[in-house]
Structures are given as structure tokens and as C-alpha cells.
Amino acid sequence: MKPNFPKLLPSVSLALGLMAAAMPSHAGLSNAFFSYSPFGTQTLELTTTTGSVSIGASSTGWWDQNGAHSSFNPNYIVGVCGSSDTCSGDNLDHRDFFIFDLSTVRGSILSAALNIGNGPSGYYGGAFLPVSFFDVFTDLNDVAASGVGRTDIYADLGSGVSYGVFNATAADVNMQVVINLNGNALSALNAAIGSSWGIGGAIGGEVPEPGSMALVWLGVAALAAVRQRKA
Hints:
The protein is α+β, with helices and mostly antiparallel strands. It has five helices and ten strands; from the N terminus they run H-E-E-E-E-E-E-E-H-H-E-E-H-E-H.
């Protein structure tokens, strides 16, 4: 009996497409935001039941796709700083983070927004560039520390619970940008009052956690098996 390889091709193609979507870009041209930073101010703007509060970031930075970060570099670039333009980067994907000390916050938080400076050359691709923000599961001391080979931190900064999406455009170059945070972020912020709170950022839409991706692959495999039985 000949194997039914052709009947599995749609499922294989789907799996390859999902894998490609989850992999970082390696283009020579820049596809990034916050490329020249720190710039302006980096604050968390809160409205609470006791009034308005502005909290400066206690730590900012980025981790690249190889899991490298320097605690001495507060640059919070997100995306690919390419080698084929004036960004003169390394073509590696970067995911950034912002950490805030909520020890002085009183009452309950009703709304929240990031107010982040974007430098004079915040590179972007196309008409707009989506910058997505996520929860941070990793211990914040580890996120802020220098490290190598910590691809787990890189993965964490661009996956998990969505805190909001900001569509960056050319109008945002050399500007302070305000990113309104959603209900998921508000719940996490209220739970973190009295301690530190972190948020991660990545270029593109929401990326599933690694565990969720495993479920996707299982689903693809199951679909392939069903189609093979029906053949």
C-alpha cells in the first residue's frame, strides 16, 4: 500500500505556516520601534480611586532572540534593527521591557497607560507597525539583570496575556507615545500594588505561549490523522 503523503500536504503546509509566523524576522532592513532610546520619559500614568499618579520606570531594556541583555543598556528597542540602513544593527529581533515600582500607589487603579519616548529615528515598516505588549512571567530581577542564552526571557516578553497593542506610524517619530493598557493589565496592576510590575513588548500581533503552540501542533497532527483515516 502506498503511503498517502499527498493527502497530508495541507496539514503540513499549515504547520509550516504557523511556524514561520512564530519565528522572528531576519531581514536586512529595519522593522523596529523605539530604535534610538532612551528618549524623553518612560512613565506609567495611572488613574486611581485616590487621584492621578505618574511613575517613572525603574528599569528598561531589551533581550534579543539569542537571549542576550546588558543591564547597563537602558535602550528599549523592539523589533529588528537592520544592517542595510542607518540603524546599522545586527538583524536580530529584540523584545523590550519596562519595570515600575508600585510601592507608593494607594487605592485601586481605574485606568493605566504607558507614556514612552520614541527617538528621532523610530524605524517602522509599511503604513504602520503594531507593537504588542504582554505580561511578564519571569522574575523581574532576572529580566533587569544582564544575561546570555536566556531565550526563555526573550520568549516571555513577547507572549502570554495581552496588555494592549499600539500601531506605530511615521507621525510617532521623535515623539512621546501613549499606549493605553487594557483590562488584563489593570487586573495585574492592582494585584501588584505595593511591589514591582513589569510589561514586555514585541513587534507584531499576539504570540501564543510555548505551551499554547504545542497545543496547536497537536491539533495539526490530529487533523492530519483524521484526514488520513478518511482517505
